[in-house]
Write a structure and sequence with these properties.
The complex is a heterodimer of chains A (386) and B (452). Chain A contains eleven helices and no strands. With 386 residues, chain A is an all-alpha fold. In chain A, helix 1 packs across helix 10, helix 3 runs antiparallel to helix 4 and helix 9 runs antiparallel to helix 10. The longest helix of chain A is centred in the N-terminal third of the chain and has 45 residues. Chain B is mainly alpha-helical.
Chain lengths: 386, 452
């Protein structure tokens, strides 16, 4: 059977803006989601490990670093969830026929994502209010319990990521859909038979440790004036973690590349000029990030650190563009093309949206300044809320 | 018919949406109403220089932050997840019409959340004036999220001029937009009061507790005075067929034959009345005797009213997802005639593909059931098909289905309650064969006929 014959049709309603703009918003939205999401996923595991490793010396840097990271998690979780709205909205709009179908096939695990996030999210608060803000955190056994809770929380988030990988790969393979549904219509499927699933998931999973690591350095920068030694420690530790996981990412990344359908792999290797250029640029930035993070991990040099931080953000953006291209190739292979949907631009709403977005940025800058001023360094003070 | 149908035994897909929505509405209304409460209480604390009240607000705002940012946000995403599983065609339509409105709402969400965190984390760290400003800003942003989503929710019941113009603004500022917005804001105030009663009942100082309990109880009263007036304007704007459904239900109540909709209305009114009476005679007049347990009872009553009222609103929209545009089974009104002429299974992608599978060949009856009936019915559970079939034989079922196929109200008493059957004569016969085969079948809900 021709798989394209089972891909649902778009609704007979025009798109509200040109497809290139909607695709840009999808990519940008996913980028803004991926940054905090990576910190949450990798940061949860890292903070558990740091707190466990530092349980005997709770005034030591190891423990305090883990505590600072764990304390910041609810904020990152909240932003990861909110920023997730944008890619979810635009993927439904642009690729809904594939996305809704794969979601229905795995409806039960897909809905369980919500429950898992709620539990993990609450756990992040339990850690803060039950342990960090009470005497319990001061004992070694309290630290072990904290680490255990953070581990459970992180396993929850890791499972959520795995379920997302299942759906994001299942939506690309309509050839499987009909037989899956014929086996069971209750939405109990996963996409475990998919060859790219495990390498793809690992590619994201490993990246999250690297990103969480590099974020630790950001905490270091924040307290640079207050506590130079601790700041230097966090930059070094963060860069080290980043370097280790980025190097680990190289074989994982190639495994993933190799697992792709050959025609798509070849596009990344030079068959498609734009995809190749973006992939090449990502590799180049990875090289920059490796060198600068190696420097920062030795000296704690903040300039080298900032370079690796920026390189990492650029790599994530480039990889997201590559990910999008891969999706488009898949979609085209079964004739799902948003460019075939008529467009009737809602100018009034589009202009309101753009103006509101600018106003939001201005407001957030003002708000950040206000909060930063509230937490302006005072002598002998630790990190906010730690 | 474009998509595979998610089979949810016993409960049925709509209740998956229903359960998540009721929880979400109760929490999200707290997020908005609670914002007003926090701002109002902080103004009071500021004017009276009441440190007790400030201390209370610090505790209450932690509870507020955690409940709204975790469960509120996640169940909101949950509604979205569940509607796309149960009603993908309807969800896709809404998203194609209102993408940018949703995107705009997201901006306000970001502002709302960032302000909520800034508000909570700057207690005692910035000036009292600056903090009060954050409380007010939070309230404004949360109201804007409602201002936007209300346009999409009310659009589904009263799409207004959109059905002709297909202009988003006609759909957004639809006939029930304003009454819907005002009712929701009143409800939000009441829900904020109920939540605040819970935290107030935990205050240790008896004098201050009494003061706060009384202050919170006042938040529950406006909805019960203004609610009926606004509801009148709301009902005036909704389609006549939907109003008729309510009143037919009420008129026949005397003979014990009242409709589900009328039952929901009664339940909602009784529970609301209970709340207002107890709020007035309880925390308002006798704040001293108010306890944590009573506060929890208020919350439970509040949740029940929210549940029944939202359920009623959903029932009003039946048999449509978007009134006069798309039926709850995802079939557009404009498609019915074509389907009747050329057949349902020739039209939809998935329905058509499934009809050609070996499991289904020659027995499309169950497939027809899934696509035409299962968006509201289950086999053994909610609105059980087996129970409705009872002892009817195939001829009786054929007669019933033929009636359902009629598009005129005088020939089809279910017009306006159920979607017209969209099927060719042959498909109708197959569906009847399948439905009649349910007669007296043993209870085995998970196994549905020959289709897996």
């Amino acid at each position: 059977m021709d798989p394209s014959s089972i891909v649902p049709l778009y609704q007979p309603i025009p798109f509200p803006a040109p497809v290139w703009l909607l695709e840009t918003l999808l990519i940008l939205g996913f980028f803004l989601h991926a940054l905090p999401m990576n910190v949450v996923l990798g940061g949860g595991f890292l903070s558990a490990a740091l707190i466990f490793a530092g349980k005997e010396n709770r005034e030591g840097y190891l423990f305090r670093t883990g505590k600072a990271l764990a304390t910041a998690l609810p904020l990152f979780i909240s932003f990861a969830v909110t920023q997730g709205i944008v890619p979810l909205l635009f993927v439904q709009l642009l690729y809904g026929p594939a996305f809704y179908t794969s979601s229905i096939l795995m409806a039960v695990p897909w809905l369980s994502v919500l429950l898992i996030i709620i539990v993990s999210y609450y756990l992040s608060y339990v850690v803060i209010y039950r342990y960090f803000k009470s005497e319990k955190a001061l004992t070694a056994s309290g630290a072990v319990q904290t680490a255990a809770l953070l581990l459970v929380m992180s396993l929850g988030f890791a499972l959520v990521g795995f379920l997302f990988s299942n759906n994001m790969t299942l939506m690309l393979t309509p050839a499987k859909w009909l037989s899956m549904y014929s086996q069971n219509p209750n939405g109990l499927h996963l996409n475990l038979s998919e060859g790219t699933l495990i390498p793809r998931y690992l590619h994201f999973f490993v990246a999250s440790f690297a990103t969480a690591g590099i974020t630790l350095g950001l905490f270091g920068l924040y307290i640079a004036k207050r506590n130079a030694e601790f700041s230097n420690y966090m930059i070094k530790l963060g860069s080290r973690i980043y370097l280790a996981f980025t190097l680990l990412q190289v074989p994982v990344g190639f495994w993933y590349l190799k697992s792709l359908p050959p025609e798509f792999m070849h596009k990344f290797m030079g068959g498609d000029t734009i995809a190749f250029a973006i992939f090449g640029a990502a590799m180049l930035f990875t090289l920059v990030a490796v060198v600068t993070s190696a420097l920062a991990s030795q000296s704690g040099n903040s300039k080298a650190y900032i370079l690796s931080l920026i390189s990492n953000a650029v790599i994530i953006l480039l990889m997201i563009i590559n990910r999008h291209q891969l999706r488009v190739w898949h979609m085209n292979s079964f004739n799902l093309n948003p460019n075939n949907v008529p467009v009737s631009t809602q100018w009034d709403l589009l202009i309101t949206f753009v103006l509101s977005a600018v106003a939001l940025i201005v407001y957030l800058v003002w708000l950040c300044k206000l909060v930063a001023k509230a937490y302006a360094p005072k002598d002998g003070e630790a990190l906010p809320n730690t | 018919m474009n998509y595979p149908i998610w089979v949810v035994p016993y409960l049925g897909g709509p209740w998956v949406i229903g359960i998540i929505s009721i929880i979400h509405i109760f929490i999200s209304h707290f997020a908005v109403g609670g914002g007003a409460f926090l701002a109002a209480a902080e103004i009071l604390a500021y004017k009276r220089k009441n440190e007790n009240l400030y201390d209370y607000l610090k505790t209450h705002s932690r509870f507020f932050l955690i409940v709204t940012t975790v469960s509120g946000a996640m169940t909101g995403v949950g509604i979205w997840f569940s509607i796309s599983l149960v009603s993908p065609d309807g969800t896709a339509s809404l998203i194609q019409i209102f993408t940018l409105a949703w995107a705009l709402e997201y901006l306000f969400f970001v502002a709302e959340l960032a302000t909520a965190f800034a508000y909570y984390y700057t207690w005692d760290k910035i000036s009292k004036e600056a903090h009060l400003k954050l409380a007010k800003l939070y309230f404004v942003f949360s109201v804007f999220t409602l201002v936007i989503i209300n346009g999409i929710i009310t659009f589904m019941l009263t799409p207004g001029k959109w059905t002709e113009s297909h202009n988003w603004l006609d759909g957004f500022l639809n006939p029930t937009y304003w009454p819907g917005l005002i009712i929701r804001m009143l409800i939000m105030g009441a829900i904020a009061g109920m939540y605040a009663l819970v935290t107030s009942s935990r205050i240790k100082d008896p004098h201050f507790r009494t003061y706060m309990v009384r202050f919170c109880a006042k938040w529950l009263l406006p909805i019960f005075i203004l609610g009926p007036i606004v509801s009148y304007f709301y009902l005036k704007q909704i389609p006549q067929a939907a109003v008729d459904t309510i009143f037919t239900g009420i008129q026949t109540s005397g003979v014990g034959n009242f409709s589900v909709l009328a039952r929901a209305l009664y339940l909602s009114l009784i529970l609301s009345g209970t709340i207002v009476l107890f709020a007035f005679f309880g925390p308002y007049l006798n704040p001293r005797g108010f306890t944590f347990r009573i506060a929890i009872l208020f919350l439970i009553c509040g949740l029940s009213v929210t549940g029944t009222t939202e359920w009623m609103r959903e029932l009003l929209r039946k048999p449509f997802v978007v009134y006069n545009y798309m039926y709850s089974n995802g079939i557009r009104k404009a498609e019915i005639q074509e389907i009747t002429d050329t057949g349902f299974l020739n039209k939809g992608r998935w329905a058509g593909a499934l009809a050609k599978t070996p499991e289904c060949k020659g027995d499309a009856g169950e497939l027809m059931y899934r696509y035409q009936c299962m968006s509201c019915h289950t086999l053994d559970g909610y609105r059980s098909m087996k129970r409705m079939i009872g002892d009817r034989d195939k001829d009786a079922v054929v007669g019933f289905l033929k009636m359902l196929k009629e598009k005129e109200a005088d020939k089809n008493p279910y017009h306006g309650i159920m979607p017209p059957l969209a099927a060719s004569d042959e498909e109708l016969d197959k569906l009847a064969t399948y439905l009649a085969s349910l007669k007296g079948e043993s209870k085995d809900a998970t196994k549905i006929g020959k289709l897996p």
